[in-house]
Design a protein that fits this description.
Two copies of one chain form a homodimer.
Chain A (H helix, E strand, L loop, with lengths): L4 H8 L3 H8 L7 H13 L6 H8 L4 E6 L5 H16 L3 E6 L7 H10 L4 E5 L6 H10 L5 E4 L8 E6 L1 H14 L5 E5 L4 H17 L7 E3 L4 H14 L5 E4 L2 H13 L9 E5 L13 E4 L2 H16 L7 E4 L2 E3 L10
Parallel strand pairs in A: 1-2, 1-3, 3-4, 4-5, 5-11, 6-7, 6-8, 8-9, 9-10
Antiparallel strand pairs in A: 10-12
Chain A binds a DNA duplex (16 and 16 nucleotides) through helix 2 and helix 4.
DNA sequence: CTGAAAGCGCTTACAG
DNA sequence: CTGAAAGCGCTTACAG
């Protein structure tokens, strides 16, 4: 069906070895035969079979990417940059949405192992789990595994982590500076990343609001859950005047609810999100957000992989600093 | 390095053929030897090499997905559903962000051809182009190619198209019903899909506003371009009281600009977006949007592929009806 | 029920 | 500069 190296060899009256040499642009082929073969190759639209090639060279030029849900705003971007970058280096990405259910993860790791991927990228702190670590040790013990925003201890694992904990403490400091009396923290699901943010919030409270009753809640993932939780919270504690949400997406929903409740942002309630997503510029009012540098995390992941694949060493764990981007959902600092 | 079928065969004192039979769960193996081999397989964490397997079975179980930019809100979702569904059927996705520049597309098609993908999904009307059609005919003439929201005529090409043209005409009808005097249409880039929307808008104008000066503009892709275009338009034609944006994302920016200009939505200006994205529920006010059924388009694409791969026939081109979801950015219909 | 053999499409020493 | 041969890890008739 497909034209092979042997077909071309026959037409050119040479051996397959010679054709292989010109396909791979190697030396030791006379200019005339090279030209003749090149012409044939082009005429017949020859395309080498990567599977066959990989079988002998023991390389697939494929890299696995695991993500719970590519629709998650902060991860879509990461996947985009990773794919573009890797593609530029001649690699293809095998991307799987694994869901949050750990049971299913092993299946995907095994599947990627069958395909002989050369490296694995895990997108999200959620993969910082024993299930995943064990699956890796079982099925992919010999290739580099890079975790974006997470880390676990395995000989072939590397972590690049955004320092969200310190970042959220900084958010509390900002609220304090701008006159907020009673800040709270609302997060969707419990992931290692969200727990870090929560710790950062509690540390901030401890430092700037030593006598405050700490309120840090897990409020679910659906639009309805988040809206309801915000509404109930504001009704129960009407004096709340600062909310840090674990993600911009939640904060967007929060802004809507506050508008519906007639609470002005930032005059009555200040709001801070996390991710510095594109939507933080679009909300009304625009959203102050903690930039957790996910772009840098992704890019570093790619750089690590390229380095490891070429035999270099890279640090096992790396921490990237965050930065608050101030917009209209928080008050200016008192002079 | 990796344990092969031959290693297992040696340990079990059988031939590779027999091991292959139990790996593939085929008949003609005595229960005792099967059990013995199964045990060995498990103990050694045997994982078959898909490349080797594919080489002989002439199948890769991989499907290519081409998209200009996975971050585009309406496409992220499509990719998500496609990957999940295909994965459930035992296929892996090779996803590439090709960018909008046609020159680079051929490269990706060739790359996918090397990997011997069994089908190709093109996400977005932009691929409805001669460049792509020719690349397909050259490098992938024998596998099913399904275009989401586009179509071109090739023996192996199938299109699933959202009837956005009629949908936008319906949007104009809605504006007419709700008392809008002067509607305009703003789109970002010129893609076949956007041109269809524009045609739908012009048809609507022609029908409901026969004497209106038709204003349908291409206003660029960046946040700044879109904001500036909306601002200038409102200053130049202050009597505009209805805007249809080619995507919800643009409409979100539009809402911000209108708020900044002190124009009330929907009282002063009605706004309609397209895609019915998650953000249409989050904006202030919530956004009336044309649901172009991209979920159905994606799902149909997968179903088509599965059908074609199992030898069934499917229609070459399919049209899916759209639906307006009314929210707070348009006025209620006068009784 | 089992194994020897050929072959999928390629690359890579090795010999000439 | 060129080709014959072996081998990558698997499956699949075929013979027994």
């Amino acid at each position: 069906m497909q034209v092979t190296i042997y077909d071309i060899a026959k037409m050119a009256n040479v051996s397959a070895s010679t054709v292989s040499r010109v396909v791979n642009n190697k030396a030791n082929v006379s200019p005339k035969t090279r030209a003749r073969i090149l012409k044939l190759l082009a005429e017949h639209n020859y395309v080498p079979n990567e599977a066959a090639r990989g079988l002998v060279t023991q390389s697939s030029h494929m890299i696995g990417v695991l993500i719970t849900d590519i629709r998650t705003t902060q991860h879509t971007q990461g996947v985009y940059y990773i794919e573009r970058e890797l593609s530029g280096h001649g690699y293809s990405c095998l991307i799987h949405n694994t869901g949050r259910d750990e049971e299913n993860w092993v299946h995907y790791v095994q599947e990627l192992s069958q395909r002989k991927i050369e490296a694995l990228i895990l997108m999200g702190s959620i993969y910082q789990s024993d299930t995943m670590r064990e699956a890796i040790q079982l099925y992919l013990p010999n290739i580099p595994v890079v975790i974006c925003n997470g880390y676990f201890n395995a000989p072939n694992a590397y972590g690049i982590v955004s320092d969200e904990q310190t970042g959220v403490t900084d958010c509390v400091a900002l609220l304090h500076e701008t006159g907020c009396r009673r800040p709270v923290f609302l997060m969707n699901q419990s992931t290692p990343s969200n727990e870090q943010k929560k710790q950062g919030f509690l540390a901030g409270l401890n430092r700037f609001y030593p006598e405050a009753e700490p309120i840090a809640l897990e409020i679910g993932n659906s639009h309805e859950d988040i809206a309801a939780a915000t509404r109930e919270l504001m009704e129960r504690y009407p004096d709340i005047d600062g909310i840090v949400y674990s993600e911009d997406d939640l904060a967007m929903i929060g802004l809507r609810v506050l508008a519906d409740l007639g609470r002005r942002v930032p005059e009555d309630v200040q709001v801070i999100g996390i991710n510095n997503s594109q939507f933080s510029r679009l909300s009304i009012p625009t959203l102050t957000s903690l930039d957790n540098m996910l772009y840098d995390v992704s890019m570093t992941a790619v750089r690590h992989i390229m380095a490891l694949l070429s035999g270099q060493r890279v640090s096992k764990k790396m921490l990237i600093c965050t930065e608050i981007v101030r917009r209209d959902s928080t008050l200016p600092t008192a002079p």
